[in-house]
Amino acid sequence: MSYGSIAFELSDDGITLITIRRPEKLNALDVATVGELDDALSRAASDGSTRGLLLSGAGDKAFVAGADIRELAALDAAGCREFSLRGQRTFRKLETMGKPSVAAIHGYALGGGLELAMCCTFRVAAPEAKLGLPEVKLGIIPGYGGTQRLPRLVGRSRALGMLLTGEPVGAEEALRIGLVDHVAPRAELTEFCRALLRKMLANAPVAVALAMEAVDIGLNAGVEEGLRAEAAAFGLAAATEDRAEGMRAFLEKRPAVFRGK
Ligand code: COA
Questions:
Q1: Parallel, antiparallel, or unpaired: how do β-strands 130-132 and 169-170 relate?
Q2: Where does CATH 3.90.226.10 sit in the chain?
Q3: Which pLDDT value is given to residue 68?
Q4: Which residues pair with 56 in a beta bridge?
Q5: Which of 72, 106, 180, 196 has its CA 20 to 30 A from that of 119?
Q6: pLDDT given for residue 1 in this prediction
Q7: Is 69's C-beta closer than 6 angstroms to any atom of ligand 1?
Q8: Which residues have a catalytic role annotated?
């Protein structure tokens, strides 16, 4: 598939940069863009060279200012449900692909933009970023996972505060409540995110994926099932060549060389 509204760039360090590229519409996610994003995420998931993902928005003003309101306005109830389900499937792919991802947030991350960022493993915001779920101002609610992921990140009351007022929070407030993990100057945002990813990519890839999966299962199912998933993943990690290498390297007092096997 060739892309018109996104860019897909793999670099030598194993980081794939996916940029949403509709700056004249503040990178609003129309159906075509979500389709391209879906294809790009499948590609990143199956491509052995991609070990981590960096998501960003083109232009100076926005990461992503939400789903495309012009398109949404033309949909009936069944169309809106389908729109929501399709986007949820795409976003969930990002969350569950077993490769760490970071959203580099500058400017607006609203509605579907914040929902996309919340599917990333980590979020880093520039100081002037504005993050929010303003859907109730339009007479709708978030449809790409916002009602589920925001309370898991910031707690019920803070999530409801954002969901019911529709008001955005700034970067410092987002950091305080745990909605973003770091704040970095705009000029250093991309490099900060890459450095954060590189710290994870230095580790055993299968172990990283298994840790992400155990957290995902436990958060969604509860502690008992999460603990069973953790034990199963612990066993799986123990069967990898990287486990033997990691432990041998420790005992030999040298850096480990992981191969993802
Ligand atoms: N869907 C479709 N188009 C959007 C959009 C969205 N979510 N967000 C911005 N745009 C478009 C605007 O319509 C405008 O297009 P135009 O030049 O053809 O009129 C262009 O992007 C620039 O936006 P504009 O509103 O002029 O910029 P601004 O700096 O004055 O305001 C925002 C920025 C983010 C406050 C404002 O664009 C906004 O409120 N956007 C919608 C946010 C939202 O509700 N998101 C959730 C959607 S479910």
A1: antiparallel
A2: 6-201
A3: 97
A4: 19
A5: 72
A6: 85
A7: yes
A8: 115, 135
Q: Which fold has domain 205-251?
A: Lyase 2-enoyl-coa Hydratase; Chain  A, domain 2 (1.10.12)
Looking at ligand 1, which atom is closest to the CA of residue 108?
34
Q: Is 45 in the pocket of ligand 1 (CB under 6 A)?
A: no
Quote the tokens at residue 204.
């055993």
Cα distances from 17 to residues 129, 165, 191, 200, in angstroms, run 20, 33, 12, 16
What residue's CA is closest to ligand 1, atom 42? 65
Q: Do 37 and 18 meet the contact criterion of CB atoms below 8 Å apart?
A: yes
SS3 of 85-128: the string is: HHHHHHHHHHHHCCCCEEEEECCEEECHHHHHHHHCCEEEECCC
Residue holding tokens 């389908």?
82
pTM tops 0.90 = yes
Q: Which residues of the chain have pLDDT under 70?
A: none
